[in-house]
Amino acid sequence: MNVKISRSLGIIAALYFTANFNAQTTPRDTVSKEQKIEEVVVIGYGSVKKSNLTSAVSTVKSETFDDRPIYNVGQALQGNAAGVNVIQSSGKPGAAIDVKIRGNNSISSSVSPLYVVDGIQTFDINGINPDDITDMTILKDATSAAIYGINGSSGVVIVTTKRGKANKPQLAFNAYWGMSKTVNNIDVLNLDQYKTLMSEIDSSYLTTINNPRYEGINTNWRDEVFRTGFDQNYNVNYSFGNEKVRAYTALGYQGIDGIIDPARFERISAKMNLDAKITNWLKLTGNFNYINTTLKNTSDNLGTSRGGVILSALNTPSFLPVYGSQLKVRNTDAAGNFIDGYKDGQFALNPFQSSWENPVAYQSRKNETQTQRFMSNLGLEVNLLKNLVWKPTVSFDLIESTNDQFTDGYQTSYGRDKKGIGGKYLSTYQDVNIENTLTYTIKSGVHDLALLGGNQIHEKRNSWHNYEGNNFPAGTTFFDYNTVIDDKRETLVKEHLRELSFFGRALYTYDNKYTIMGVFRYNGSSALAPGNKWGFFPGVSASWVVSNEEFLSESKVISELKLRGGWGQTGNVSGIPSYSHFNLERVSRVGPDGIWRGRQWDSGNLGWELTSDTNVGLDMGFVNNRIKLSIDAYQRKTNNLLIPIPMGPAQIPFYRNVGNMENKGLEFALNTQNFKGEGFNWNTNFNIAFTKNKILELNWVPIIDKANIETVGANLVRFTPGQPISSFYGYQVDYVNPQTGDLVYKDTNGNGYFDTGDRTFIGNPNPDFSFGFSNNFSYKNWYLDVLITGSYGGEIYNASRFDLEMMNDFKNQSTAVLDRWTTPGQITNTPRAYSPNSQFVSDRFVEDGSFLKIKSATLGYNFLSPFKGVSKINVYVTGQNLLTWTNYTGFDPEVNAFNTTPGVSGVDYGTYPQVRTFIFGLKANF
Predict the structure, then answer these.
(1) Do 689 and 665 contact (CB within 8 A), yes or no?
(2) How far is the CA of 264 from the CAs of 37, 92, 261, 367, 817, in angstroms?
(3) Which of 145, 340, 466, 669 would bridge with 687, disulfide CB 3.0–4.6 Å?
(4) How far, in Å, CA of 83 to CA of 282, rounded?
């Protein structure tokens, strides 16, 4: 780890704990006497007093993220909750956010948490406007998540949005504008250095480069590809109501232009929350959301040969121009007309391999997704008897998405080869949930009992309707299926899934000291075969509020002390196909030319992945809770790991439950009021999580390899028993031979020569710990909020260096190759140019991924009642990704090129860079 990071952590720790020592020794009588208000925490299908909480639960308030330029709810969780690891694996606008609660507990299934937005259950949080959120509650252990059964194995995030208040009408407006640039750059060879390298690889390359047609051309591809990004965000909301009806309405717009064209994210959102008291015994609740997003994609996570813009911007030699018309000599036909590749408006050909185009040519490819989403639920609250409440709810979530792709048949060599190529991909996801709950509460003296029972009917219908084709009429600039001439293809796939469940919870508290909670969910799914359709998921937990005992009630130091513990089970259904117990075939295309091909073998013995979780916790408060500390230790074991096993000549998948794995860890959360005075206040939140995972058993397929890199034709990651998930696998470099300049690999199997048996485990992407550290300062009307995030111990496989340092062809390389071996006797860690044995997966490109980052800093000022009718105006400036301390040589250590591949993490391969953003914001309340 970089010494700078260690020193930075030391300075932070010294300042922090010094301040908190002062807070602890503050005289008790200086603490303001405030009325104690019992905090209530939202849990599954209800809420509970925080003092009676028995499980591992964290809460994130909107104040921690509402001044940051974020587009996804997952970004709001980053650094704000212990055990919640959030990786923004790409800086691309609208890119998916990878959220993991307490690590990765599956190899082939999704480990994204379940989100419950105002009662609407979903795994897709894309498009939800963070500005509408009040707070988020994270259910981290199985005792709290078991009530969600087969959907709760990766944790649950309960999102609560804003609502109207009686007799308090309020109009609010907020907006911000910002600019973005890359956080870091990768330097590549200049033209002279590139020519020298090419002379060492192949002298014929140098002959081509010195062709008179390229004379005087020296293109700066970074300037051609990278630009300044622009952010803008506008939200207006109005809440109103009386004792009978309350409503919250909101309208929002967000637009983000990325630093690499054509990347752009655009969202329009509309929301209404409604609460109506119809009678003394009947209430109506409604939540309605409409979201419209447009995502323009820049191709990344690909090599130069496959259209990856980022690596192409680094690899494309500077002697090439953007357009063929910029060449000093342009080829013509017998009639004197320019031929393809030299015509006006066409991108210049790569003389070494015409299919490897320049990055601006790749940027011209259209890939745009338009998504409309309607999320809503409608519920009643019926007081049947005293303390007996029935809540029927219907939820509906509809997502319709259209992805348009097109490469025209004129500008690029790839497009000309096909005379235009494109497709339109339509997808529809429809979820309907019908839930009924009965809640009975009774409080008598020192006894407090709450009972919950319910059932859920869930129906999911998905469809994918795709159109593709090549060869379009001249001048076509967008995909039109009706004009396709060659290879016209239409495919249609539909799925239908049904689930039924029954659930319950009992919560009993005695004398505000001892609490016990039991939960269960009995789940059934149509995806599984008869006999395996049903599963039972229980959980039990308890807590003891020691500080309410007489022997601690008068303590002037300890204001809160609670012990917690629990055990529970959850399931994971995400990796199970909708028709797992059938042999399936699928037609290759709609129409008479379609060919039926095998799609799936009957997997009738399949069951869901089962996660068992044990958690113990300790909550402490000191000096009237000015210092609060929570500690949790957990062990999470997942059995029946689901794996698709390719079988037969066609490699058709056969699904099996083949093994188990384990996660265990420690979490600490420390919240302090460091200083509280007349004009100045300083609060600090610090959280840190230590996590370890290991695969315990894999039957049928004891070795699973993933994360293939096309440049070397090999996988980077291996899953096998005894190793952490997503471990890097390859050769270990010993040294560069001073006489030959070739890499020498370690003989790890001891057989005396180099062979595939020398491969071993060479890296672990899972960090030893990750942390978040936030400080909130206020002085009169000024405030300053700073969020620091970090990770230590995780490694990154920088696969981009295969394309930037392998020196095996005509691609430009990074300046790291200036240290390459060139003469006998030279001592260096970089091999010679065009060394065949440098093209293996090895630990040469495994790097320390530890980092310390100032994730965001906000400075603001509040104008109180500046005008008649205006209660407050807040102006602020925010910087995001301000500073990063790391040893990593890529763009940014927060990266994962394989974020859509289950189980894989920590690989960088031409990933869109992270950005540093500065915004100016304005908020007004009327």
Answers:
(1) yes
(2) 45, 8, 8, 11, 34
(3) 669
(4) 40
